[in-house]
Please model this.
Amino acid sequence: MAPKIGDWVRSYSAGIWQIYRILDYKCKDPVTGKVVVKTTIFSKRFVSDSFKRSFKEECCDPAFVYLLELDKKKELDAFIESNSGLYQKFIDHEPKQIDCIYNARIGIPPHRDSQIIADKLKDLGPIKDIEINPKLNELGFNTKAMPSWTVQFVSSGFECLGGYLSFQFLRVLEQ
Model:
């Protein structure tokens, strides 16, 4: 059974989490290069494994999320009933925005000046992930060269455009 918004779950991080957003979008598979549909699950943690307040947010692939075990769900229900104030704080808690970062590779330019690159890319976006490398190549950057620098793009809050994540240029990381 696929998880849904409101479900109590376990995730790759410790604690008991509740799903608050599920996002399906298209993206380029890094292995095959084909466009695929991907799902990201956003959840916020209520308590640690020892039932201590532990508010936090995260997102991940559904493969890392599974429904809370029945005995733990009963234990959680009893905890909520006897800690209604804490539960209300959790309900009122707005998770921080989670952004998606896309790292593109470019060959180190002969001028070795990251600011020149940043100036060239600062107005690039909104752009889909499948458009980033072709656009970098079109602008004269070699996306297959080694050694390389990383050009980062950000999708604020996993914002979508036409079913794809919408990215803006963020920064150049010299390595």
Summary: The chain is about 25% helix and 40% strand. The chain has a mean pLDDT of 95. The first strand starts at residue 8 and ends at 10.
